[in-house]
Structures are given as structure tokens and as C-alpha cells.
Amino acid sequence: MSQAAQKSPDSPHRIFTEKTLIVASHNQGKIREINELLKPFGIVAKSASELNLDEPEETGDTFVENAELKALAAAKASGLPALADDSGYSVKILNGDPGIYSARWAGDHKDFALAMQMVECKLQDKDAQEDDERAAAFICALTLAWPDGHMETFEGRVDGTSIWPPKGNNGFGYDPIFIANGYDRTFAEMECGEKQKISHRADAFKQLVDACFKAS
Ligand code: IMP
Prior knowledge:
Layout: E1 20-23, H1 28-38, E2 44-47, H2 63-78, E3 82-91, H3 112-125, E4 135-145, E5 151-162, E6 178-180, H4 192-198, H5 200-212
Parallel strand pairs: 1-2, 1-3
Antiparallel strand pairs: 3-4, 4-5, 5-6
Bound molecules: inosinic acid.
Inosinic acid is lined by residues 27, 58, 86-89, 102-103, 138, 171-175, 187, 199.
């Protein structure tokens, strides 16, 4: 068994012992945030785009299925452990839409102003005015896959409200229309470090670290 395939005797999870990891994403916003999260662990992260790895089609019906297929494809293609996230914006009254279609709502031109407008139009069609009618969440499935096919997957979320008009210039995607519960500014009005403390990605990442990264 390789070093990377070790399991701690008191944990059902595989422990990550490598120094290099592929971040299986071509989304610069996500790569930046994942790199920030990995920094304290001294892990060298290379992105799928740096290595010219193809992006597999997201054919899954859930965040978990898509995260797993992306991580596995990158791990097998690179021969290194790979970390993939599948995430999205989920509005309760819209039956969880745009959900796994969050990137696709922005179209080929990645027009998130348009995608946010679509969310708002659908909320207005439902006459959603009160905060509880505008409940939304960011959800993130995070998978660490090894070239031998072993995978560890964790799901994180952050709940809040979908607001209009969009506010703030930081972050990416749907950040300008999301206010997390207990806060009064959108994710796009927060500094990266502030969002990282409470985000869906940070929540999933914490679970991954607790399960698979050895405390130093
Ligand atoms: P995918 O996981 O690559 O399919 O894309 C997820 C999409 O969800 C992104 O393109 C964003 O539109 C949206 N999304 C995921 N995480 C965030 C976030 O932290 N802020 C804003 N939008 C996000």
C-alpha cells in the first residue's frame, strides 16, 4: 500500500499524505478560493487548466455525482490525487434551481448578470418578497480522488437570502445576490477571507481536513 493510501486505524477515511494536489477546475474564482484554503497545509496545488486536463461533461444529477466524476477524471489523467468541487446556488421556492445548473444558467459567455436576473425574475413570478420566501443556499460537494479510484466526498452549505439588486464587486458567480443568515452584506461585499470563514466551500473543506488531513 502506498503512503497516500494509508488509513488511520481509528478512522474510516483515507489520509492524504502527498505534497501535490490537482485542483480539478477551470473556474478561476474557485481555484483561487481552494488555493487559499490549501495554503496553511503546505500543499502545492496545480490546476487542471495548468496541466491542460480536459474538463469532463457534468452528467451527474447531483452535486456529489458531478464532484466525483470531475475529481476521478483528473486523478486518473494526472496520476495524482485530485480535488474537485461541484457547487451552486439553490433557491428554495424555485425547487432548488439553479442548483447543479448554476454555471449553465450563465450561458456560454458566463454572463452572471444574466443568471442573477433570471433568478430574480423567477422569484418575482412567485411574488417572493419576504426573506423566508427568498431563502437560498450555496451548496458545495468536495471530492478528493486518488488515481486508484478511491474517493472521499463531503458536502457543505451556507444558508441565507436572495436579494435584489446585486451588491458588491468581490467574489464571483451569484455572490452579489446572496446574504448569509446573520450578516447584512452580500458575499460580493465581503473580503475573500471573510467569505472563506462561512462559505459552503469552507464548510465542505473543514470536513475534508478533519477526515483526511493529518493534524501537524
Ligand atoms: P460548477 O460547480 O463548475 O458546475 O459551477 C458552479 C457554479 O455555481 C459557478 O459557476 C457559480 O456560478 C456558482 N457558484 C458556486 N460557488 C459559488 C460561490 O462561492 N459564489 C458564487 N457563485 C458560486
